[in-house]
């Protein structure tokens, strides 16, 4: 196994992947668990996937996050509003995170994944389609529907952000 | 509201997130454990079960015609070809997969296959796994099993929205199923076992639907039968990697006082969905100077709690929610063990003054009525004990 390559991948990409995992799960602890599981799986299969580790990582993150049954098994599900966002320090960042997580939670899993990969990770449609194992057209429709709902939920936040600027 | 606005909001919502500093170490440790666990567990199983001459496959050439297989789809050459095409192992291999069984299940057609594989260490193994119908297509199940070359071992799939259809491939070996488990008065899991009889080496068994929960067990002789589509999710009860070891001031020696190391306290053949929550192991000393250990052990969706008082004999204190919070009242007014992961503790009796406790776990006086817990980075709350 090319340990050096794997180590470098983890060092350089784990922050970005954790942020994707967080928005997919809505829970920081679940996101860390999810990322570790995915990276462990990649470690075992590195010889096979090292040519395209990003694609594999995104696809596995999405698939595992969509598997709600498994996630419920590993960690009792809680209302997202009770997780990570209930601290008394309601700074702007906390408020934004609260709204974003709640809004994403309302989306069907594949719409959520399409929005996160397309607009957080800034991936082109074709790469998102590879991660979601669907056609680019399906990605576009999922992302469009997800965005529409997200815009409605995030409107007040965005307006306030604009005012501050 | 532009796409760029959405991007900025998503970035803002996550820009303070960073992975744990020891993530790489944890991943490498976990990755190695996955490989080692498969090798050791499955190799041991294959040795105990012996080699199945009828099912042994020592390689085939690419020009070999598609052989038939047991199962109601075992004569369907088109399906067998699709199964082989859907099969992927994740390991380098240079030989043709062989279908051990192919048939209909409540969740659609599925097949069990085997193939030789070369691991990262350059050694050849047999790889065994399933393809099943997902989203209308045949797809390889995520986990493959490594066994010594030329051997096969019983394995199973758990299908259905409620995970209530067990597809069990015994491959001609005696396999027993336990649908449920209980906890005896000593805190030990107990099971009743019944033999499984199959047609053509595969049984399809309906289990009670329990969303998100598993309670059954499978064994073949003294070996656990693996469920291949659960990955690492469901495991035998074990202390796990998230045990919170705490040594209270003045703690005495209590070597070996650990139910996870005592026979009969685990559930080696059972499948239980364990919450990814910590278990506690707290060593201390009683006011009469006897050593004390309080321990929680994950089981199903909670934890069994035990205590040792002055000897290596465990006492079962019941089943309770697993998690960061530990609370166990000892008998005979010996005190109360309270813990909260990375929290600060204060306690008081009646309406008395709040007194600080040292660390995030402590043995408090039996007269304690309330405990104030301040989670790290959070607000204090008071609980009655």
Question: Topology of this structure?
Answer:
The complex is a heterodimer of chains A (165) and B (385).
Chain A lengths: L2 H23 L2 H17 L1 H4 L3 H14 L1 H7 L17 H14 L3 H12 L4 H8 L3 H29 L1
Helix pairs in contact in A: 1-2, 1-4, 1-7, 2-4, 4-7, 4-8, 6-9, 7-8, 7-9, 8-9
Chain B lengths: L2 H12 L8 H27 L27 H10 L11 E8 L2 E11 L5 E11 L2 E4 L4 E3 L7 E5 L5 E5 L5 E4 L2 E3 L5 E3 L2 E3 L5 E5 L10 E4 L2 E2 L1 E2 L15 E5 L31 E7 L5 E9 L2 E8 L5 E6 L4 E5 L6 E5 L3 E5 L6 E2 L4 E4 L5 E5 L6 E4 L1
Parallel strand pairs in B: 6-15, 16-17
Antiparallel strand pairs in B: 1-2, 2-3, 3-4, 3-5, 6-7, 7-12, 8-11, 8-13, 9-10, 13-14, 17-18, 18-19, 19-20, 21-22, 22-25, 23-24, 23-26, 26-27
Keywords (chain A): DNA-binding, Sigma factor, Transcription, Transcription regulation
GO molecular function, one term (chain A): sigma factor activity
Family (chain A): Belongs to the sigma-70 factor family. ECF subfamily.
What spatial form of chain A do the alpha-carbon principal axes imply?
A: globular
The outline of chain B comes out as globular
CATH fourth-tier homologous superfamily of chain A: Winged helix-like DNA-binding domain superfamily/Winged helix DNA-binding domain
Give me the count of strands of chain A: 0
- Average per-residue pLDDT of chain B, rounded, comes to 80
Rounded mean pLDDT score of chain A: 74
Unreliably modeled segments of chain A: 68-91, 159-165
């Amino acid at each position: 196994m090319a340990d050096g390559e794997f180590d470098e991948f983890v060092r350089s990409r784990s922050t970005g992947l954790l942020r994707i995992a967080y928005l997919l799960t809505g829970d920081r602890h679940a996101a860390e668990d999810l990322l570790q599981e995915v990276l462990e799986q990649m470690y075992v299969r590195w010889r096979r996937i090292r040519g395209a580790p990003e694609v594999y990582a995104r696809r596995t993150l999405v698939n595992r996050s969509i598997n709600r049954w498994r996630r419920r098994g590993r960690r009792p599900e809680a209302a997202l509003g009770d997780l990570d966002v209930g601290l008394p320090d309601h700074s702007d960042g906390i408020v934004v995170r609260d709204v974003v997580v709640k809004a994403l939670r309302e989306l069907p899993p594949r719409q959520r994944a399409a929005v996160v990969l397309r607009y957080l990770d800034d991936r082109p449609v074709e790469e998102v389609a590879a991660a979601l194992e669907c056609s680019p057209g399906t990605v576009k429709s999922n992302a469009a529907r997800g965005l529409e709902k997200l815009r409605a939920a995030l409107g007040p936040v965005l307006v306030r952000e604009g005012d501050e600027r | 509201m532009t796409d760029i606005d959405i991007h900025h909001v998503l970035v803002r919502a996550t820009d303070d997130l960073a992975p744990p500093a020891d993530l790489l170490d944890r991943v490498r440790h976990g990755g190695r454990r996955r490989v080692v666990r498969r090798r050791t567990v499955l190799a041991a199983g294959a040795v105990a079960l012996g080699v199945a001459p009828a099912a042994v496959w020592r390689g085939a050439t690419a020009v070999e015609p598609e052989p038939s297989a047991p199962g109601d789809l075992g004569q369907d050459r088109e399906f067998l070809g699709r199964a082989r095409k859907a099969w992927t192992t994740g390991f380098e291999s240079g030989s043709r997969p062989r279908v051990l069984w192919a048939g209909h299940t409540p969740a659609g057609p599925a097949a069990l296959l085997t193939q030789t594989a070369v691991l990262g260490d350059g050694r050849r193994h047999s790889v065994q796994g399933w393809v099943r119908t997902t989203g209308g297509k045949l797809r390889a199940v995520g986990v493959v099993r490594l066994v010594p070359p030329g051997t096969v071992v019983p394995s199973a799939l758990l299908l259905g929205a409620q995970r209530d259809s067990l597809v069990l491939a015994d491959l001609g070996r005696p396999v027993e199923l336990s649908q449920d488990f209980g906890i005896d008065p000593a805190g030990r899991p107990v099971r009743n076992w019944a033999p499984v009889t199959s047609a053509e080496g595969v049984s399809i068994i309906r289990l009670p639907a329990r969303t998100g929960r598993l309670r059954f067990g499978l064994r073949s002789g003294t070996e656990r039968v693996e469920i291949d589509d659960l990955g690492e999710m469901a495991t035998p009860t074990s202390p796990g990697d998230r045990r919170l070891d705490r040594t209270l001031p003045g703690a005495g020696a209590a070597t070996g006082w650990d139910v996870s190391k005592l026979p009969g306290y685990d559930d080696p053949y059972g499948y239980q969905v364990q919450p990814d929550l910590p278990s506690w192991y707290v060593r201390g000393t009683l006011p009469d100077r006897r050593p004390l250990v309080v321990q929680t052990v994950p089981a199903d969706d909670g934890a069994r709690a035990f205590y040792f008082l002055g000897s290596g004999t465990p006492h079962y204190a019941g089943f309770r929610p697993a998690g960061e919070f530990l609370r166990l009242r000892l008998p005979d007014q010996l005190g109360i063990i309270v813990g909260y992961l990375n929290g600060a503790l204060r306690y008081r009796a009646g309406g008395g003054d709040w007194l600080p406790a040292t660390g995030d776990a402590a043995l408090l006086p039996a007269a304690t009525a309330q405990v104030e817990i301040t989670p790290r980075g959070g607000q204090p709350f008071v609980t009655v004990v």
